[in-house]
Amino acid sequence: MLNRKQIVVIGSVVILMGILLSLDIQGLVKPEENASASSAVPAAAPVKAVSVEEVSETAKKTLNASLKKQVSDLEAMLKSASEGEKLNIQKQLAQQWDDVNQPTPAAFYYELIAEKEPDFDSWLKAGDKFTDAYQQSMDTIVQPALVQKAISSYQKADKIKPNTPEVKTGLGIAYVTGTPNPMQGITLLLDVVKQDPKNLKANLNLGLFSMKSGQFDKAVERFKTVIAIAPSAEAWFYLASSYENMDMKTEAIAAYLKTKEIAADPNMSQFVDRKVTELSN
Q1: Which of 19, 26, 50, 130 could crosslink 107 through cysteines, CB 3.0-4.6 Å?
Q2: Domain extent at residue 101
Q3: Domain boundary at 154, 179, 204, which?
């Protein structure tokens, strides 16, 4: 039985793919598998500062009256709380935003939690949540700030526990997405899969970036790896789209049908049915 969050994620695969592939990634070219990493962090362009209050107000517009009141009540409690009480309320707000699949305000609260509990897991959680936020955001003004916050969170985690695959993967994705030197990020991701060929997140994102740069044959191999490790509607969808871009219609149809089978979502089923009809003609 799928929970509410899983249904939201499955139903938004098509939209998410459009967002990921439309991100303005400058200089993304065919990577050399043995390229050496640069230790310097690429300079980022100035970005608009974004506050937790700002993103929370935007996110609350998506909530029903009951959920909006729950969040607003917690925010009011936070404003009047003592320093000793704030951490517990921030954790409640982070979880509340997580529960309604709103990663942007959740990320800001996880960052506040990490500042008070500055351990590896806290900063990794903040980095991962900021990654979810910028990947799902359609606001091109807010996106760069979210990318920078993801990078900052991962760097703080890395200082506590250097060179973990989780942090290298998060940094790699962020460097590709939001810095002037995306190849530094590709190199980090390639290093992760060299050490751990079955790393799910690194393979998935290398596949997405291969699609972005038009290397659909490489994308297919990445998504096949992902599916062999943990088959999902998302991975089958990306594989199907890669096959479609290679004009491999039979393979694309089969992969789209697997997407439909696993997702069991009416919106996805309708999309796949249309795709199958188009590709069959």
Answers
A1: 130
A2: 48-179
A3: 179
140 and 83 share one domain: yes
CA atoms within 13 A on the CB side of 125: 19
The residue out of 148, 179, 210 marking a domain boundary is: 179
Task: Dump pLDDT digits (tens) for 108-153.
Answer: 999 999 999 999 999 999 999 999 999 999 888 899 999 999 999 9
Three-state secondary structure call for residue 43: coil
Distances (CA, A) of 35 to 81, 180, 184, 225: 51, 17, 9, 22
Give yes or no: residues 217 and 173 share one domain. Answer: no
Q: In the chain, what is the greatest distance between 2 CA atoms, to the nearest angstrom?
A: 66
Q: What is the pLDDT of residues 41-93, one digit of tens each?
A: 444 556 788 999 999 999 999 999 999 999 999 999 999 999 999 999 999 99
Helices 120-136, 103-116: inter-axial angle, 10-degree rounding: 160
Tokens of 221: 């191999």
Nearest to 155 by CA among 143, 147, 167: 167
Domain count for the chain, please give it. 2
CA within 13 Å, CB half, 29: 5
| Contact of 72 with 60, CB cutoff 8 Å | yes
Residues 175 and 215 in one domain: no
pTM: predicted TM-score of the whole model, two decimal places: 0.81
